[in-house]
């Protein structure tokens, strides 16, 4: 439907296109939205939401009725909903990975996340988990990195793992930053981008469209949009920040409107 300012105000960065998108993806982390809360979010901003992650293992605390209701709502708005990787890690740790896939399918889920942020998972088993899920018909997202800053892999290790995941059938790889966005992945203890890490990873990955950068803080979202353009993939966005992020992407906030004024060119666009 047309927006109320059509033909009066153009988006400074232009229209980003309809779903399903392959770039400019937004993943929201859902830490406990009820059915009506999710319905409200989708009514307001469903056009701008690509993935809804049911954070950590929270979906195991739902009733089956609520989980199925949320899955059906997301399907109406072309949003891929999936459980956080911690639930998969728990199932794997308990020797029930295949049963986890079976139950996910029976619940109506079509996307899953595979990670080893907390558990040990060697590369052979990680490939098996990806390929088994793909063979079962799931879209697979994988997460790169550890949740403990003391176990943080090098950029080279992250790149190698990311390329292996994509080769095994993962649709996208997610750069870990947790909810805080501090002291993890490409961010320092203050939540600032570590320049060398960002540059090395971006240079080493074949296609930036394959990466979703977890970036829960507004300053991080602005930095990544400034660096890679409005169609960079961003994740771990809080539900009440979804429309604000889309305004950044469109150039409808001062932080990014200045880029449009300066006619900045983005390497990934």
Q: Which terms summarize this structure?
A:
alpha/beta; globular; 269 residues; 8 strands; single chain
Question: What does this entry look like structurally?
Answer:
This protein has one domain: Aldolase class I (TIM Barrel), CATH 3.20.20.70. 41% of the residues lie in helices and 13% in strands. Strands 3-2-1-8-7-6-5-4 form an eight-stranded parallel sheet. Strand 2, helix 2 and strand 3 form a beta-alpha-beta unit. It is globular and about 55 Å long. The chain starts with 25 loop residues before the first strand and ends in an 8-residue tail after the last helix. The mean pLDDT is 93.
List the SSEs and their pairings.
Layout: E1 26-30, H1 35-45, E2 51-54, H2 64-76, E3 80-83, H3 85-93, H4 97-107, E4 111-114, H5 123-135, E5 139-144, H6 155-168, E6 172-175, H7 195-204, E7 211-214, H8 218-228, E8 233-237, H9 242-250, H10 254-261
Parallel strand pairs: 1-2, 1-8, 2-3, 4-5, 5-6, 6-7, 7-8
In short:
The protein is globular, with a radius of gyration of 18 Å.
Strand content: 5-15%
Task: Report the average pLDDT across residues.
Answer: 93
Q: What best-fitting shape do the alpha-carbon axes yield? A: globular
Radius of gyration: 18 Å
CATH architecture: Alpha-Beta Barrel
Strand order of the largest sheet: 3-2-1-8-7-6-5-4
Q: Using DSSP, what is the number of strands?
A: 8
What share of residues is helical? 40-55%
Largest sheet properties:
8 strands, parallel
């Amino acid at each position: 439907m047309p927006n109320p300012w059509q033909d009066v105000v153009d988006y400074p960065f232009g229209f980003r296109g309809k779903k399903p998108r392959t770039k400019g993806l937004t993943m929201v982390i859902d830490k406990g939205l009820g059915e009506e809360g999710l319905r409200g979010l989708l009514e307001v901003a469903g056009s701008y939401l690509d993935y809804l992650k049911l954070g950590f293992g929270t979906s195991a605390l739902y009733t089956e009725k609520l989980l199925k209701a949320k899955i059906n709502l997301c399907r109406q708005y072309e949003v891929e909903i999936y459980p956080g990787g911690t639930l998969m890690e728990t199932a794997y740790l308990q020797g029930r990975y295949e049963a986890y896939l079976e139950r996910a399918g029976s619940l109506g889920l079509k996307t899953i996340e595979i990670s080893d942020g907390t558990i040990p998972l060697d590369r052979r088993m990680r490939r098996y988990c990806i390929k088994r899920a793909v063979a079962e018909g799931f879209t697979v997202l994988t997460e790169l990195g550890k949740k403990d800053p003391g176990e943080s892999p090098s950029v080279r290790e992250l790149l190698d793992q990311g390329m292996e995941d994509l080769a095994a059938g993962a649709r996208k790889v997610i750069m870990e930053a947790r909810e805080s966005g501090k002291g993890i992945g490409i961010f320092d203890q203050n939540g600032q981008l570590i320049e060398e890490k960002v540059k090395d990873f971006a240079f080493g990955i074949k296609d930036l469209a394959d990466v979703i950068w977890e970036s829960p803080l507004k300053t991080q979202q602005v930095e990544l949009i400034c660096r890679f353009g409005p169609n960079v993939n961003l994740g771990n966005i809080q539900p009440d920040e979804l429309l604000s992020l889309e305004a950044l992407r469109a150039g409808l906030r001062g932080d990014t409107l200045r880029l449009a004024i300066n006619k900045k060119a983005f390497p990934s666009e």
